[in-house]
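Students often ask why we bother predicting the structure of a whole assembly rather than each chain alone. The short answer is interfaces. A chain on its own may look different once its partners are present, and contacts between molecules only exist in the joint model. In this exercise we take two input lines together and write out one structure for the complete complex. Read the inputs first and try to guess which parts will touch.
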Amino acid sequence: EDQVTQSPEALRLQEGESSSLNCSYTVSGLRGLFWYRQDPGKGPEFLFTLYSAGEEKEKERLKATLTKKESFLHITAPKPEDSATYLCAVHSPYGGSQGNLIFGKGTKLSVKP
Amino acid sequence: GAGVSQTPSNKVTEKGKYVELRCDPISGHTALYWYRQSLGQGPEFLIYFQGTGAADDSGLPNDRFFAVRPEGSVSTLKIQRTERGDSAVYLCASSPGGGADTQYFGPGTRLTVL
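Now the answer. The structure tokens for the assembled complex follow.
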């Protein structure tokens, strides 16, 4: 069964304190790994898509990387406005569905000034 | 351009009532998805449309849930005989062509069943 596990569940950082969020996955044929940001009371906001091991993508203070078993979201010198829940999701066409994403439970990030 | 929109933003209903939730996808997107998100959890897949047809409805929890997309654009999620356990945020997403295309989410409808 396809699974996505995110750790830690919650992370508290001081402003400027860099860290990483982990997303471990077990899928039968990865077609894409997606990172989303979700603010309270809002829908997930797309950040990155990674398709193959070794791929990296960056956007401002965020950098996403992918291996064959996990993905990391690195946050460099975070600011309070980076506080949100970060969701990881995978797409696999062999998990009984053609199109849906399988999500982890998310990591709730809090950045204190 | 305009993103995915969902109406209403909040819906409060009583146990046993019927509700409809609406989703307007990004213009030109052929794929549309419904997910359900409970507090502290990631979104869970319900149904996927490619054009007008339901390509995969394996995530619908039971036959009280039904969704349509008659003209290949707007979709309506319908829940009959609502139960308290149906309370959640219902999210809609669309993508250009399905498969591993990036899915763009709407703001969600928070459904509360009293």
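Check your guess against this: Residues 86 and 102 of chain B are 27 Å apart (CA to CA).
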